[in-house]
Write a structure and sequence with these properties.
Layout (H helix, E strand, L loop, with lengths): L2 E2 L5 E2 L7 H35 L3 H8 L1 H20 L2 H18 L6 H15 L2 H12 L5 H33 L10 H10 L1 H9 L21 H10 L5 H8 L2 H25 L2 H24 L1 H7 L3 H30 L5 H33 L3 H11 L2 H7 L5 H28 L6 H31 L2 H6 L5 H20 L1 H6 L1
Antiparallel strand pairs: 1-2
Length: 518
């Protein structure tokens, strides 16, 4: 019911989350758990995969990072825009079906190339998850509860990552005991694990399809109609990121745009060639070069065809610095999530089943506690200061440094587990704050695109480089511990970006409508 202000004029009642809102959020958490089980299961299987396929730590870092991340990030762009223009429920259901099927197919990989192709497919499918989920949550929950709701959704990240270790270790051990020479179709334990975690997602996809599509922008009081031709827009967006269609798109904007696009392509190719010469890892740097070139092409096209969205995302330093600052938090988080199990197994000599139980429970609980508490505190700080959530992201940068140093220098497994718990919990506090901040810096119709841009930071910065950086330094130094400790070096850079964001966010949020009309 509307209330009256002091002048007697009616004041619209504040929108509220309903019971169905919380039901939808619960379903989305289940989806995100599956998302991260499928994404992170490679971590506990890494030592076995490395031995069977003849890989090194750099190869594992690529498979756990860029092989997935580049395609996740790039397809997140057109799929994020499709989430802004089409049924988010249908899109999520289709995406879940795709990534679950590709996870299952990973079980039939027989070399680096086939496993890379499967990981690419998982990345493309999972690119539907967060753009659709973030947009749905924003239309089911009012702004005052948004960081809390997004934090609850994000808890699936940590639960799924933790459960994946336990499930993977259990299946490998059980399968190996039952079929020591290989089971049906010649599959070994790690291959069976991929099949076991991929197939259930096909069933959950049917559950997702039963959800109701909310009115877009309802919680903000700004109805945002969808595009009458969403797939035509999707096709255009897809052509923005797929070479050589990117060159045709640039040519249509004029000779100068084409020349700039070709120049950027040459520059990123030269950089990739240089890095390949230094590291001898062609796949990593070819994927990274493709990713950054495609992002440039997309941003250039977005600037020409949707200048308002471009201004509120790429033209807003507060958005960019928040995204990159959190991207460096995620760099360390993804690296630890991938390498903690191989480190415990090879450096500390802990049996796979034991480390899977402790690290799995460790990661699930620490991440869940950290992201929920962080989201609540971020909302509390935001209510008192428009830039208050940035403080929570800063905490996620600084607080894990000491636990990482202590945990990855001690020979004591118990202390290692405790410090890993603290590092995970402290880092997780930043996620809800970062996600909510970027959502608040755009109009409702732009949320799917903004989510895709936010995840460019967490993937092309965090996931593409975190696992790989640790693995490559491990190869060069001959010491996995050195690779993990190198993560501490990114903290000062992240902190500098976030200090700028803290100062810029209030004005950026206050001028959204004005800048969108310019």
């Amino acid at each position: 019911m509307a209330e009256n202000d002091t002048t007697g004029a009616p004041v619209p009642a504040e929108p509220r989350a309903t019971g169905y809102s919380w039901y939808v959020l619960a379903v989305l958490v289940v989806v995100y758990i599956l998302n991260f089980i499928d994404r992170q299961i490679l971590s506990i299987l890494a030592v076995d995969v490395k031995a069977d396929l003849g890989l090194d730590d750099g190869d594992l870092g690529f498979l756990g990072g860029a092989a997935f991340a580049v395609f996740y990030a790039l397809f997140g762009i057109p799929l994020g825009r499709l989430a802004d223009n089409w049924s988010r429920v249908k899109l999520l259901s289709i995406g879940l079906t795709l990534w679950s099927a590709m996870t299952a197919l990973s079980g039939f990989a027989y070399n680096k190339l086939t496993l890379t192709l499967a990981r690419m497919g998982v990345g493309i499918g999972e690119a539907t998850a967060s753009p659709t989920a973030y947009s749905l949550i924003s239309d089911y929950f009012p702004k005052r509860q948004k960081a809390t709701a997004l934090a609850i959704y994000s808890s699936g990240l940590y639960i799924g990552g933790g459960v994946s270790l336990f499930i993977g270790a259990l299946i490998v051990e059980t399968w190996g005991r039952a079929y020591p020479a290989g089971g049906p179709l010649g599959l070994v334990g790690w291959q069976a694990a991929f099949l076991a975690v991929g197939i259930p997602g096909l069933i959950v996809a049917l559950w997702v399809a039963t959800l109701r599509e909310p009115v877009r922008g309802a919680m903000d009081g700004v109805a945002s109609p969808s595009s009458p031709s969403p797939f035509r827009e999707f096709g255009k967006d897809l052509s923005m990121i797929v070479p050589p269609l990117t060159l045709w798109g640039a040519w249509k904007r004029g000779p100068a745009a084409l020349a700039i696009n070709i120049g950027v392509a040459i520059a990123v190719s030269a950089f990739a060639w240089w890095m390949i010469e230094l590291t001898a890892n062609e796949a990593q740097w070819m994927a990274v070069a493709l990713g950054y070139y495609a992002v440039f092409s997309w941003a250039s096209t977005l600037r020409a065809h949707d200048p308002a969205t471009f201004r509120l995302i790429w033209g807003t330093p507060a958005f960019i610095c928040t995204t990159l600052g959190y991207g460096l938090v995620s760099l360390a988080a993804y690296a630890l999530a991938f390498w903690s199990a191989p480190y415990a197994e090879t450096v500390l000599g802990i049996p796979k089943k034991e480390l899977a139980f402790w690290l799995g429970a460790n990661g699930a609980i620490s991440g869940f506690v950290g992201v929920i508490i962080g989201g609540r505190i971020a909302d509390y700080l935001r209510a008192r200061n428009p830039a208050g959530r940035i403080v929570m992201i800063m905490f996620g940068v600084v607080a894990p440094v000491a636990p990482i140093w202590i945990g990855y220098t001690t020979p004591d497994p118990t202390l290692f587990y405790v410090m890993n718990f603290l590092a995970g919990a402290f880092g997780a506090t930043a996620l809800g704050a970062a996600a909510a901040t970027t959502q608040d810096l755009v109009l409702p119709r732009m949320r799917g695109t903004a989510t895709a841009a936010f995840f460019l930071g967490t993937t092309l910065v965090g996931l593409s480089f975190g696992p790989y950086m640790v693995g490559q330094i491990s190869v060069i130094a001959g010491d996995l511990r050195m690779g993990i400790l190198s993560l501490i070096a990114v903290a000062p850079i992240a902190l500098g970006l976030l200090i700028y964001a803290y100062r810029a966010v209030p004005r950026a949020e206050a001028t959204i409508a004005e800048r969108a009309r310019v």
